Amino acid sequence: MSNKYFSTIDEILNNIQNWQITTADDLEQFRIAYLGSKNELKPLMSHIKDIAPEDRKAYGQKVNALKQAAEEKFALFKEKIAEGAAKKQAAEMDLSLPVDLKMGNAHPISQMLEQVIGIFSRLGFVVADGPEIEDDWHNFSALNFPPDHPARDMQDTYFLDKDYALRTHTSSVQVRLMESSRPPIRAIMPGRVYRNETISARSHCQFHQVEGLYVAENVSLADLKQTLYYFAREMYGENTKIRFRPSYFPFTEISAEMDISCFVCNQKGCPVCKHSGWVEILGCGMVDPNVLENCGIDSRIYTGFAFGMGIERALMLKYRIDDIRLFFENDIRFLQQFKAIV
Ligand code: DAH
């Protein structure tokens, strides 16, 4: 009697071992047969009462071993089939298909800075950097600002305490550079600057400038003009004309403002150039000998030129953007219009 039940177990074990599993379907059939809610192993335990008491232990162990064999086989083939499916999927993947990748882009200010840096680096200018929190000496005094200059007023400058302020221009980096290195010095200095302005479409309390400085023996106004002419043509197109208007900055002597021919209307007259045919893009001049001396550079041997331009302003002109606040609001609808303008 007992033997009958033992041989049933052997038969089932045989079936489990010989069950062919190659597809996910086979695996499912196997699962239903041996692990499902009405599986073949379930009735085996109910036969235990028909087994001779001395054989019951061995019988129970055999049933358990059977269950374990089914579970192990199932786990093994489940893994194999999953692996096979992944391999098949990889083999069938078409790597040449176009992808709809959502690519970001650099902020227009970063793109413009890169462009300006690129142009000047082709002329041998290196990039220099300075702190945004400055002392009076680097932001004003060394640059020849008289003690009563309006820029030193709380109205225009964010003072942090009596000694420190947020820099109002990148000209402060000129001073640091001249203090820490010897001519020839040829550098551009991009960075963020701060002014105590009411925020409006036209002005902001933070913006970006690029400062330029060239100090060496025999640097002349002609060098300044030629350098900026090259820049204007690279930046705004090869037919761009430039003109200089006399101006005043405490740190340059002589000082000028540079205009470029209006790239929007080709000097026919338009709202961008206010019908004058010219747009102002930067301030410049020959470094005042006092400034050279303040920085420990002998003004009898060396001369230099400097210039400074506003990046937001240049972008606003170029892309006819009428509100400076757009640069700082991070509105994706605005920013994504500047996909690779460079
Ligand atoms: N620092 C000036 C400003 O913020 C810009 C400037 C003008 C820089 C003339 C210069 C320069 O180096 O020569 O308005």
Describe it.
It is a single chain. The chain has two domains: 2-92; 108-341, BirA Bifunctional Protein, domain 2 (2-Layer Sandwich), CATH 3.30.930.10. Helix 1 (2-18) packs parallel to helix 4. It is built from twelve helices and nine strands. It has helices spanning 2-18, 24-34, 42-46, 53-92, 108-121, 136-139, 171-180, 221-236, 289-294, 311-319, 326-329, 332-335, and strands spanning 126-127, 133-135, 164-166, 185-194, 206-216, 242-247, 252-261, 278-287, 303-310. The structure holds 3,4-dihydroxyphenylalanine. 3,4-dihydroxyphenylalanine is lined by residues 169, 171, 211, 249, 252, 283-285, 306-308.
Q: What is the count of distinct domains?
A: 2
Specify the helix fraction band: 40-55%
Strands in their spatial order, largest beta sheet? 1-4-5-9-8-7-6
The helix/strand series, from N terminus to C terminus, equals HHHHHEEHEHEEHEEEHEHHH
User: Shape from CA axes?
Assistant: elongated
Largest β sheet strand count, sense and barrel closure: 7 strands, mixed
Bound compounds:
3,4-dihydroxyphenylalanine
What is the straight-line distance between the termini? 91 Å
CATH architecture term of the largest domain: 2-Layer Sandwich
Brief descriptors of the model:
seven-stranded mixed beta sheet, BirA Bifunctional Protein, domain 2, binds 3,4-dihydroxyphenylalanine, 342 residues, 2 domains, two-stranded antiparallel ribbon, alpha+beta
